[in-house]
Design the sequence.
C-alpha cells in the first residue's frame, strides 16, 4: 500500500469523522437542554407485566415529579409559621417555579361538603350500614348521639343538613379528614414532639430532570433557605422531590466522569510516554480513542435520543479498551525499528485486531440482549466506540506513522520478559497440572461463599440524607409513596369500583388488625352504584315513614322549615364518578383513575404504612381484576431471572469463540488460547466470594467483558510473538500496557458512586488483572523452549 493511498484513506476518514462530530454536536447541544437522562425510571427495564401497570407506575412517579415538598420545622409555633410564609414568598419571586403554595387561599368549608350534599341519602359508612341493617333500628338514638357531639373533627356538616350524622360520619373517613396536616392560620400544619411543622410546596416550571431547571431551582432554594434561617433562628427544613434525587444523581455522575476520565487519561498518558518515550504516540493513541468516543456518543444519541447516567460514566472508562488497538499498532512500529513500513505494519497487526474486535463486539452484543435500557445503551455505545477506534487504526494512523520510532523502553521489555518466563514456567508439563489443582483448592472456598443480590436499589445509590428526610416527611404528613399499589381493572367503571370495594374490605381488616395504616382509593370517595343503591335502600326503610322521622326531628327541637327542607331533599341522586372527577375536591386524587378504553377501565389503590410484600399480595389473592404492582420488586425479580441466564450466556460466548480460535490456531492450541480468560473468570468469582460481594446482573455482564478483553490479550500475544522473535518480552510488554490502561479505566469504576458501576468496575479490575497474569501460561511451551534454547548464549 503506497503512502499516497494511505494519505487518501486518512483524508476520507478525517472527513467522515468531522461529519460524525458535527452530527454529534447537533444531537448534544442543538436541540435544547443537554440530553443527559437522570430519570431513574427511564433506566429501568419493563418488567413484562400488564402494560397498563407500567403506565400506572410512570403516572404515579411523575404525578408529583416536578414538585418540591418542603416541611418547615421550628420549636416555636410563631417562628415556624413565619418561616413558612417567608419561604413561600422567597421562592415565589423566582420564575423557575410555576406555583408556590405556603398560605392557603380563602377557605370555605362548604366547598368540601357541596359535592356530596345532594347525594347524602346514598352514602353510608360501614358502621352506619351495619347499624341500619339491624332489626328495630331507632333513628332517634342516632339523632340524640349527633346532638351530643358538638365538637367535631374534620369537615363538619351543618346540623340541619345532616341531623342523623350519616354524611358527617362518611366525610370523617375521607382522606382529607384523616390527614395529620390541618388548616391553621391559613397554613397546613402538623404538631409533633413539641415542634411545629408547616408544609410548603413548589411546582417547577419545567422538568425535574432538566439540568438548567435543576440548577436554578436549587440555587433559589438555597438562597431562600439561608434567608429564612437568618430571620427565624432555630428553623430546619426537610425536603423531598424528584429534583433533589435527580440533582444528586447528576452530581455523582459528574464526579465519576471527572475522576475516571482525568485519572485514567493522565495515567494512560504517563504510561505511553514511559513506554514509547515520545509524545507522538501518546497524541495518536488519544486521537484514536477520541474518534471512538465521538462515534460512540453520536451513535447512542441517534439510537436512544438521550445519554443515561450509567453510559456517561461508562463512556469515560471506555478509554482503556479503545486505546488497545492503537497501542498494538504503536508497539509493532516500535518493535520494527528501522525496517518499519506503515503498510506492512498494518498487515502485521490486522488479523490480531480484527480477531480482538470480534471477541469484544461479541461480548457487548450479548450485553445488548438484556432488556434493560441502560445496559443496551452501554452496549451500543461500546460497539460504536470499539468499531470506530479500530477503524481509525486501519485508516488514519498508518498515514500519520510513516517514519520509524524509538524502540520500547528496554527496561520494560526486560521486565516483561522476566515476568512472562516466571509466569509461564509453572504452567509447563506436570507443574501446570499441579498449579491448576492448587488454584482450584484456593478458589473452591471462595466459590462456596458466593451469594446473589438482585435488589434494584443496588442500581443507583440514593443519598441517605434525602431518603431519611423523605421518610420523616411521610411520617409527619401522612403523604405516601407510589412504589407499591394495586391495579384494579373491570369491564366498565361500575365493575372497577365494585372490585375496588372488595379489595378495600380486605384492607380495612388489615387496618383493624393494626397491620396497615390505611389506603387511598377512589371507591372510598365515590362508591359503586351498587353500593350506593344498597345504602339508599336501607335509608328508604326510614323515609318510607316520613311522619315518624318528622316527629323525631320535631321532638329534638328542629324547626318546621328545617324539617321540611330535609325531608324534601329525599331521595336525592347517586354520586357519579364522572361528575365527581370534575370537582376541585378531586384534583389531588385524579391520578388514581386510569380511565377507560376498549379493553375496559382501571383504577389505582395505594396501601399506606406497610412494606410487607407478602401481606399486601395476600390481600389481593382471589380477587378478580386486582393485581399488586411493586415496580422495584418486579425489576428485582427480572434482574434475578437475567442474572440466572447470564451464566448460560457466558458459556454460550465461550462456545462461540472456540470455533473461531480453532480455525485460527488449530484445535490443539485453541484451548490454550482460551484458557487465560476462562481461568481469569473462575478466579474472579472466587475473589468476589472471598470479598463477600453478592453477585448481581452487573457482575455477570462484566464477566462477559472479561472474556472478550482476556481473549484479546491472548490473541495479541499469540499473533504478535512471531513478529518479535528477536525481542523476547516485547509482545508481552504491549499486552501488559493494554492491561494497565484497561485497569486504569475500568478499574476506577470500582470507586464510582453508582453501585451498579462499582460492581462492574470491581469485576473488571479483578478479571483483567488475573487474565493479564495468566496469558503467558497460554504460551508456556513456546516461551519455555525459547528460554532454554537461548540460555547458553546469555
Sequence:
Amino acid at each position: 500500500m503506497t503512502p499516497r493511498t494511505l494519505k487518501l484513506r486518512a483524508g476520507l476518514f478525517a472527513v467522515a469523522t468531522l461529519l460524525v462530530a458535527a452530527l454529534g454536536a447537533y444531537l448534544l447541544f442543538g436541540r435544547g437542554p443537554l440530553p443527559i437522562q437522570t430519570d431513574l425510571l427511564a433506566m429501568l427495564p419493563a418488567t413484562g407485566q400488564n402494560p397498563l401497570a407500567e403506565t400506572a407506575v410512570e403516572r404515579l412517579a411523575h404525578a408529583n415529579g416536578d414538585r418540591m415538598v418542603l416541611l418547615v420545622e421550628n420549636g416555636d409555633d410563631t417562628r415556624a409559621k413565619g418561616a413558612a410564609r417567608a419561604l413561600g414568598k422567597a421562592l415565589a419571586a423566582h420564575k423557575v417555579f410555576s406555583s408556590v403554595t405556603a398560605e392557603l387561599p380563602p377557605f370555605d368549608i362548604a366547598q368540601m361538603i357541596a359535592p356530596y350534599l345532594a347525594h347524602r341519602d346514598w352514602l353510608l359508612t360501614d358502621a352506619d350500614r351495619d347499624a341500619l341493617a339491624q332489626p328495630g333500628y331507632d333513628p332517634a338514638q342516632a339523632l340524640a348521639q349527633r346532638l351530643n357531639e358538638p365538637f367535631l373533627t374534620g369537615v363538619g356538616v351543618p346540623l340541619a343538613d345532616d341531623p342523623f350524622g350519616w354524611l358527617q360520619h362518611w366525610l370523617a373517613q375521607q382522606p382529607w379528614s384523616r390527614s395529620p396536616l390541618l388548616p391553621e392560620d391559613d397554613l397546613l400544619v402538623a404538631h409533633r414532639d413539641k415542634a411545629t411543622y408547616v408544609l410548603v410546596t413548589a411546582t417547577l416550571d419545567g422538568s425535574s430532570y432538566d439540568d438548567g431547571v435543576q440548577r436554578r431551582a436549587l440555587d433559589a432554594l438555597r438562597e431562600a433557605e439561608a434567608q429564612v434561617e437568618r430571620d427565624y433562628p432555630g428553623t430546619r427544613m426537610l425536603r423531598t422531590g424528584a429534583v433533589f434525587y435527580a440533582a444528586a444523581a447528576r452530581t455523582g455522575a459528574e464526579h465519576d466522569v471527572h475522576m475516571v476520565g482525568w485519572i485514567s487519561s493522565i495515567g494512560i498518558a504517563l504510561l505511553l510516554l514511559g513506554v514509547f518515550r515520545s509524545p507522538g504516540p501518546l497524541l495518536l493513541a488519544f486521537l484514536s480513542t477520541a474518534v471512538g468516543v465521538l462515534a460512540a456518543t453520536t451513535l447512542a444519541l441517534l439510537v436512544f435520543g438521550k445519554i443515561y447516567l450509567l453510559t456517561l460514566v461508562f463512556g469515560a472508562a471506555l478509554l482503556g479498551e479503545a486505546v488497545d488497538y492503537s497501542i498494538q499498532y504503536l508497539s509493532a512500529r516500535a518493535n520494527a525499528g528501522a525496517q518499519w513500513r506503515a503498510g506492512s505494519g498494518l498487515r502485521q497487526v490486522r488479523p490480531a485486531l480484527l480477531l480482538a474486535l470480534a471477541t469484544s463486539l461479541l461480548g457487548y452484543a450479548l450485553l445488548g440482549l438484556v432488556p434493560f435500557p441502560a445496559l443496551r445503551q452501554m452496549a451500543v455505545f461500546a460497539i460504536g466506540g470499539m468499531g470506530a477506534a479500530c477503524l481509525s487504526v486501519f485508516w488514519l494512523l498508518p498515514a500519520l506513522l510513516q517514519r520509524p520510532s524509538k524502540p520500547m523502553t528496554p527496561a520494560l521489555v526486560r521486565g516483561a520478559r522476566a515476568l512472562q518466563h516466571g509466569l509461564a514456567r509453572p504452567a509447563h508439563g506436570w507443574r501446570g497440572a499441579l498449579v491448576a489443582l492448587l488454584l482450584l483448592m484456593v478458589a473452591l472456598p471462595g466459590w462456596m461463599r458466593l451469594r446473589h443480590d438482585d435488589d434494584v436499589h443496588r442500581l443507583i445509590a440514593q443519598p441517605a440524607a434525602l431518603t431519611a428526610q423523605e421518610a420523616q416527611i411521610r411520617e409527619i404528613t401522612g403523604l405516601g409513596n407510589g412504589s407499591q399499589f394495586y391495579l384494579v381493572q373491570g369491564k366498565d367503571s361500575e365493575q372497577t369500583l365494585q372490585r375496588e370495594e372488595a379489595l378495600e374490605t380486605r384492607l380495612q381488616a388489615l387496618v383493624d388488625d393494626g397491620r396497615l395504616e390505611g389506603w387511598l382509593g377512589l371507591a372510598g370517595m365515590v362508591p359503586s352504584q351498587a353500593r350506593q343503591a344498597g345504602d339508599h335502600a336501607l335509608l328508604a326503610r326510614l323515609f318510607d315513614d316520613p311522619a315518624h322521622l318528622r316527629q323525631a326531628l320535631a321532638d329534638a327541637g328542629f324547626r318546621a322549615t328545617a324539617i321540611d327542607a330535609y325531608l324534601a331533599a329525599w331521595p336525592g341522586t347517586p354520586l357519579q364518578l364522572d361528575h365527581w372527577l370534575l370537582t376541585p375536591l378531586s384534583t389531588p386524587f385524579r391520578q388514581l383513575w386510569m380511565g377507560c378504553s376498549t379493553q375496559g377501565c382501571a383504577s389505582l389503590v395505594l396501601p399506606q404504612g406497610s412494606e410487607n410484600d407478602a401481606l399486601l399480595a395476600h390481600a389481593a389473592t382471589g380477587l378478580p381484576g386486582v393485581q399488586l404492582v411493586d415496580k422495584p420488586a418486579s425489576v428485582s425479580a427480572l434482574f434475578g431471572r437475567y442474572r440466572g441466564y447470564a451464566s448460560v450466556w457466558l458459556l454460550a460466548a465461550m462456545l462461540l469463540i472456540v470455533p473461531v480460535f480453532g480455525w485460527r490456531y488449530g484445535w490443539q492450541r485453541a484451548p490454550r488460547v482460551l484458557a487465560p480468560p476462562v481461568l481469569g473468570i473462575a478466579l474472579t468469582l472466587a475473589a468476589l466470594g472471598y470479598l463477600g460481594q453478592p453477585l448481581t446482573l452487573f457482575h455477570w455482564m462484566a464477566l462477559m467483558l472479561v472474556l472478550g478483553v482476556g481473549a484479546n490479550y491472548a490473541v495479541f500475544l499469540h499473533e504478535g510473538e512471531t513478529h518479535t522473535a528477536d525481542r523476547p518480552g516485547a509482545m508481552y510488554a504491549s499486552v501488559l500496557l493494554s492491561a494497565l490502561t484497561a485497569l486504569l479505566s475500568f478499574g476506577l469504576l470500582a470507586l464510582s458512586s453508582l453501585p451498579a458501576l462499582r460492581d462492574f468496575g470491581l469485576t473488571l479490575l479483578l478479571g483483567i488483572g488475573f487474565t493479564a497474569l495468566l496469558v503467558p501460561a497460554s504460551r508456556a511451551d513456546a516461551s519455555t523452549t525459547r528460554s532454554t534454547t537461548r540460555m547458553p548464549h546469555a
